Amino acid sequence: MKLYLLSESNLYAKTLLPEFIRTKKMIFLSIRHPKIRKEVV
Questions:
Q1: Mean pLDDT across the stretch 3-32?
Q2: How large is the average pLDDT for residues 5-33?
Q3: Are 36 and 29 in contact (CB under 8 A)?
Q4: Beta carbons within 10 angstroms of residue 29's beta carbon
Q5: pTM of the prediction?
Q6: How far from the centroid of its chain's Cα atoms is residue 13's Cα?
Q7: Is 4's pLDDT higher than 70?
Q8: Residue 13: CB partners within 8 Å, gap ≥ 6?
Q9: Alpha-carbon torsion 32, 37, 40, 41, what sign?
Q10: Which of 2, 10, 18, 38 has the fewest CB atoms found within 10 Å of its own CB?
Q11: In this structure, are residues 27 and 41 in contact, taking their beta carbons and an 8 Å threshold?
Q12: In this model, does residue 37 exceed pLDDT 70?
């Protein structure tokens, strides 16, 4: 069971974390540069 949870969190780190960071960067950029927000949305 512990091993299963470990692999689950590993999968989470590999897939969702980069996506989250990318989204965070996009939000940051759209705040800094309003022009980018229009292109993304």
A1: 79
A2: 80
A3: yes
A4: 14
A5: 0.41
A6: 10
A7: no
A8: none
A9: positive
A10: 2
A11: no
A12: no
